[in-house]
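Hi, here's the filled form for the chain we discussed.

Project: internal
Contact: R.S.
Residues: 261
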Amino acid sequence: MKKDYIIPIFFSLRLIFMPGLLLSAGVGETSVVDITAQEILARVDMVLEYPTGIIKGKIMHVTPDGRSNLITLKGYISEEDYLFKFSTKGRGERLNVLYNLGGEDIWVYNIYSIKLFNKRGIDKYDPILMTNFYYIDLSNYDFQSNYRAKIIGEVIVKGYNCYKMKLHPIYKIGKYGLLTIYVSKKDYIPLRIDFHDRDRVIFKTLAIAKVVMRNGRDIPIRYDMLDINKGTVTILEFYDFIENVKLNKRIFRHQVLGEAK
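And the returned structure, exactly as it came back:
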């Protein structure tokens, strides 16, 4: 069963994170909230978890002049580690990207240069193959552990009642100075995330455009990332899931990333 969340990407948003008890319900009105910002983020993290096994997908990067570039990917997913292999038509396999410790530790093996890189600090914000997705964007690192958040209101996004939240990074070493997030009250899907730079100006926005139900849980399968300054759009879509697969733990060691199969 599929859900389509087509979110308009040309309106402005703002937000921050701390546990909160009151939400604005309208001018001069307030209503008691029975869930804290911390709990909401914990549920968002659960929604964004990759399903274990093997997943296949594609990335389409579109420029303002209509040109597009297609990248295919294959992911090997365990509970704490993920390995993504990126390929392009004509050039074959390009990158092996390994996420350890739930996405906190990032290793990149460039197949052409035969070099291994440990992405730390600001390097986690390098773009993946010149797309709008940074390495950190696919890491599924916990929002709950990395941001202070606050519920600042309730809004309707594409017909869905949402919590409106601001998320401040705990570690101020990256490109994201603030996140604005709109979370569906019904199923805690983050329908839209705005990425602000260190000056609090929105420069990227992410919309979850499609969700499927698998094994009793909602799994986002399409992510649309807009770079506002460049006018480019990158669409990431997962289309195949292979479950009940026993993965060799060896592929999740960065020491053998260049030979991962």
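Let me know if anything looks off before we file it.
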